[in-house]
Each structure stands twice: as C-alpha cells, then as structure tokens.
Amino acid sequence: MNRATDSYGVELWVPEVGGPIDPEGEAHDIIMSVFGGMSNAERSRIKIRVRSAMAAQAKLEGRFLGGRPPYGYMIVDGGPHPNPAKAADGKRLRILVIDPIAGPIVQRIFNEYIRGRGIFAIAECLTRDGILPPSAHDRARNSHREGLAWGKSAVRAILLNPRYTGYQVWNKQRKDEVLISVEDVTLGYETKLKWNSADKWVWSDRPAHAPLVGRETFEKVQAIMFSRSRHNTPRDRVRSVHTYQLRSRIDCVLCGRKMGSQWSHEEAYYRCRYPEEYALANKIAHPRNVLVREADLTPHLDRWLALTFAPGHREATIQRLYAAQGTHNQIGNKTAEIEARAEIATCDRDLARYRQALTTADPGATAPITRWIAETDAQRTRAEARLRSVASTRRPQGLTEQRIADLVTHAGSMVDVLRDTKPETKRQTYAALGLRCQYDHAQRKMQVRIAPDLHSLASNVGQWVVSEGGLEPPRPIKGTSTSS
Predict the structure, then answer these.
(1) CA angle 426, 431, 436 (to 5 degrees)
(2) Which tens digits make up the pLDDT trace of 279-317?
(3) Which are the contacts of 17, defined by CB distance < 8 A and separation ≥ 6?
(4) Which residues have a Cβ under 8 Å from the Cβ of 307 and sit 6 or more positions away?
(5) Mind listing the pLDDT tens digit for each residue in 201-231?
(6) CB atoms within 10 A of CB 450
(7) 3-state DSSP call for residue 92?
(8) For 448, which DSSP code?
(9) Which of 86, 239, 350, 385 has the fewest Cβ atoms surrounding its Cβ within 10 A?
C-alpha cells in the first residue's frame, strides 16, 4: 500500500479512518495491518467452506465439478442444475458421457498394457495406426500443443487416471500460494499447481458416469506400473532458480518448436528434445537432443545489436521501428474482437434454441440435440478464448518518430551495456527488443530478428547506463538478418 501511494501518488481513502490513509503514520499503518489480517482470515474461511462443499458434492453426489473432460469422455447437458437458485438463472448440469471415438482407444491402451506392451510401444503403435492423440482430438483446448503424435506422457497419464473406472475423483491437485521471493516479500505471491498424494483424493461413493475400464483392471495396471518403476520411493527435489537470458526466444529450425532451457555444469543451455515418436510421425531426421550453450550465443547477439543501433545504421533503424508500430495491428485486433463477439452471440442464440428443442423432443431423439449443444458450447469456448487473446494483446497508441529517435539514440552504445549488465536486465532488454532466434543445428548458424515493443523499450531505457561515442560498429554476423 505504501509503495503504491508513493509511486503513483494515489490517495487511499478508508471509511473507518474518516479520510485518506497516511503511509507515514504509525496508527494508520496498524489499522491497515488489522484490516489486512481480517480480510485474509475471511478469505481463508471462504476457501475452507468452498472446498468442503466441493468435496461433499464429489463424494456423495459424484458431481462433475468442472474442468476439461478426460480423453475418452465428452461433456453434455445433464438437465437443469440441481441447485434451484442456479436452475432459475438458466444454469445447466454438466455430465460426462463416453466419447464414441476416443473411448475405445482408452480401452485399447489399458488392454495392451496389461498384455505386456510398454508405454512407448503403445504410443508408437497408436501413431502408426493414424489415431489422433489427445491434443489433436480436441484442438480447441490444446491449441498450444502440436498434436503430431502420441507421446509416452499422454499414454502414462491415461493409465494413471482413476476416473476411467466410472467414479468421480476430486482433489488430485491443489493450488498453493508461495512467495515469489523470500528475500523480498513485497513482490507478493504466485499460485502454483501441485499434486496431492493418493490418500487425499476424494472418491465418489458410487459410480458417477459410464466406466471405460473396471476398477480391478485399473488397480492391476497401477500394480504393474509400480513394479516397473525405477524408484518406488518418492524423492524430494531441490529446485534452484536460474536466469536464462534467451528463455522462450530460440526456435529449432528442424521442427519449429521453442527450445527449452536447461542448467548444466553451472552454465545455461538451450535444448530441443524431440521424442522419437514425433520423428516417426513426421518422417523427419531430427536428433534426439539439439543443445546449444548460452555463452556461445549472447556475445554474437550483442555485437549484432550494436551494429543495428550504431550511428551509421541509426536512421534506417528508426524508420524500421516507426513502420513496425503501424496501426494495422490495432485494426486487426478490432476486427478480430468484433468477429469473436458476433460468434459468441450466435452461439448463445443457437444454445437457447437447442435447449428449448431438448425439452420438447422425444426421449429417443435427444442424442443429436445433445451433440449439437456440446459442439456449439465448444465453439463458444473457442470464441471466448480468442476474445481474451485479443484483449491481452491490445497495445497503446504508437510513439512518435521523434520519440523513437530519442530511444534509439539513448540505446546507441547498447553493446557496452549488455556486456556489463546483469543477466536479468539483459533478459528484459532482449524481451523489450522483441528478439527472436532460429537455431540451425546442422549448419551451426543462428538467424535473428527483432520486433521491438517500443513502450516496453521506453521503460527499460531509463535503466541503461549509456556512454556516447567511441563505438566502432562490428562486422555483420553471418547467418543473421533483421525484420521489423
């Protein structure tokens, strides 16, 4: 509270105080601490009540409590909501039914594993038979995944999911709020998902949906997996925090995926680990691991950036940056927003029409209507996701050419700054420059592009300590290019 008041000059008025809070006043500080403790206590009580109610609904009623359906099931309308107040608002109950396409695949995976096939062999066989993996089967919920082939992790997740027995299982995961930094508690908390042990899972008292496998089959699979595991006792992992200057900024040329970050031998590396089943599905020659050291990249990047912002290239850089922030992005965002809102309105009208038809249809003719409702609901979810994406990428008005020229002038000696600055500041600088790299493992070359976010660049320039003059522009780096 004190930091916000001091930084932004905004007064905080509290009725119990009878006016604005004085950040420097000891009495006011005590009052706000008391209010904060009371609010936190009430928040904890609400959290306990909600979780207790959800546990009771899962155990006693077998209620589907939301989230994405497991592979092999789909969500359909289950009639009016059992809560009268929610039913009066038009809310409907959602239930799980077997997906006629994916359901038999789940049964096949369990049967083949019991017969002795390994997880990788099952994944390879499903890929070879042309069966879509879970991420490709439901692209609306997995647009961030490739959906190329079955992976071992997908098969393993299916074999470990107890909901295929027909019972509702809740509380497999929990959300923990942990401090972002123990050394600086003012940074606040972040929410992380963590797995609960099996003894804390909440099972329904009776089957809640149609089973795909029997409970005996599921327990047999768990026993086989436990006997095959290398480590039957859990190990505590010691996690360390490392700064990767180019995290999520390097793509592998061979497969087009982002290279992951890895800490090894006290140095930062970037690795593209390409599973064998993906290579089999795409019929491409890709090493199992493509590895490149960060220390081999950043000196060349800094030299290239110095050339781009050197006095001899400054005018061309200014013109490129000014052209790159044109209004076409804002126009495109507005058009996408209008289209998404129109699609949501259309879906709402169709859903209302389908639900009205469902109430008057014969019991034997409800299957296609239920399918239409599920498809329209999925279409509406996709439109809402697009609308949120457009809202999150909306940018402020562009900067003037003179302002851009000032930014480029201040960044004229960027190579000296990047060489001497801290890794975290370098990471923020690369992000502000919109740096994107493509690494060609076969030719040992890196193609570099920059598409700066000028507003972020403007906020970072004040952190740079720039010494003007005396900069000899280095020679161009082979295999690099600019794009604004």
Answers:
(1) 110
(2) 655 566 777 788 889 988 888 888 887 777 777 776 777
(3) 28, 31
(4) 313, 473, 474, 475, 476, 477
(5) 999 999 999 999 999 999 999 999 888 776 5
(6) 21
(7) strand
(8) E
(9) 239
Q: How many secondary structure helices (H) and strands (E) does the chain include?
A: 17, 14
Q: Which H, E and C letters describe 95-142, residue by residue?
A: EEEECCCCHHHHHHHHHHHHCCCCHHHHHHHHHHCCCCCHHHHCCCCC
CA-CA distance, 373 to 386, in Å (whole number)?
20
Calculate the alpha carbon distances from 318 to 278, 324, 402 in Å. Answer: 43, 10, 9
DSSP β-ladder status, 435-440 and 250-252: parallel
Parallel, antiparallel or unpaired: strands 250-252 and 260-264: unpaired
**Could you write out the three-class secondary structure of 386-438?**
HHHHHHHCCCCCCCCHHHHHHHHHHCCCHHHHHHHCCHHHHHHHHHHCCEEEE
Helix H segments across 240-327? Answer: 276-282, 298-308, 314-324
Angle between helices 215-228 and 152-160 (to 10 degrees): 130
Question: Are 316 and 376 contacting, i.e. CB atoms less than 8 angstroms apart?
Answer: no
And the tokens for 448? 């570099």
Nearest-CA neighbor of 432 among 447, 417, 444, 420?
417
Distance between CA 247 and CA 262 in Å, rounded?
A: 10
**Any idea which of 44-48, 64-68, 194-198, 470-474 has the lowest mean pLDDT?**
470-474
Element (H, E) at 38: helix 26-56
- Where is 178: in which H helix or E strand? strand 173-179
Amino acid at 105: I
**For residues 63 and 57, what is the distance between their CA atoms, to the nearest angstrom?**
6
Q: Which residue has the tokens 């439109």?
A: 383
Look at residue 356 in the predicted model and tell me its pLDDT: 74
pLDDT interval class at 364 (50, 70, 90):
low
What's the one-letter identity of residue 430? Y
How far apart CA 105 and CA 52 sit, in angstroms, is 35
Q: Distance (Å, rounded) from C-alpha 203 to C-alpha 62? A: 8
Q: In this structure, what token pair is assigned to residue 442?
A: 């076969």
